[in-house]
Amino acid sequence: MKVLVTGGAGYxxxxxxxxxxxxxxxxxxxxxxxxxxxxxxxxxxDKNFELIQGDIRNLVLTVKSLMEVDAVIHLASIxxxxxxxxxxxxxxxxxxxxxxxxxxxxxxxEIGTYIFASTCSVxxxxxxxxxxxxxxxxxxxxxxxxxxxxxxxxxxxNPAPTILRFGTLxxxxxxxxxxxxxxLFVAQALKEGKITVFGGHQYRPFLHVNDAADSLxxxxxxxxxxxxxxxxxxLTILQAAERISAVTDCEIEISDEN
Length: 258
Description:
By secondary structure, this protein is of the alpha/beta class. Helix content is 36%, strand content 23%. The protein has helices at 13-22, 59-66, 81-84, 88-108, 142-154, 181-192, 209-221, 237-248; strands at residues 2-6, 26-31, 49-53, 71-74, 113-119, 162-166, 168-170, 194-198, 203-208, 226-230, 233-236, 251-255.
């Protein structure tokens, strides 16, 4: 089975690509490689791995990448509110329009499996409520609104797409990120011996990057369709810091500045 992974050299994609190869899949990655070749450099000699370097806004490149694939796992995006707000037009083109275009091309090429990485941020701020897939959607920031619109734009597909609303990712990856709260806390704990927590009582749904990759493979192998929340555990920011402190013996500083 040949699987196309958009953004397959990214934080989650580079983990997922390895797991797919280990399970015997043929993996084609399309990625702009903004962060260099290092995350997938070791995969380039694998006979079951193929890299198409380029931007998913390029329709010619996207059509080429879809040739002879059995499934699409669409991860490519400018992730998070701060990054997606830098160039709003670019973010809209990548996070929303490309998602819509790929869905239409999957329909045209009769590719029956389209798995889309969305975010729990589409629920917005609903304090003291346990969120389910049936909860109301109240996206607040620009990034969450793009994901919300993307979900709506691909919902017409038949067979229906798989939409996984991921929690806040964390964990080690070949394309490491330190803008994610747990990864940032670990870096602070190891480098400075102190974690700074702003507020601390706000809950976050956390998901390890390995579990995120496994959930995508589970959806692929079980022909899941529909929308699913995907998290490991709900924790407050302070609880997350306390777990890291228990392992590293670092201090925790509470700040109300932000």
